[in-house]
Amino acid sequence: MEFKKGSEYTRDQIHTLYFQKPVPKKVTGNWLTGYVRIEEELIVFMNIDVPGKTGHDFDNRYDPSEKRIVWYGKPDSHTEQPMIQELINGEIKPHFFARWDNNDPFVYLGIGKTISFEDDH
Question: What is the model's pTM?
Answer without folding.
Answer: 0.88
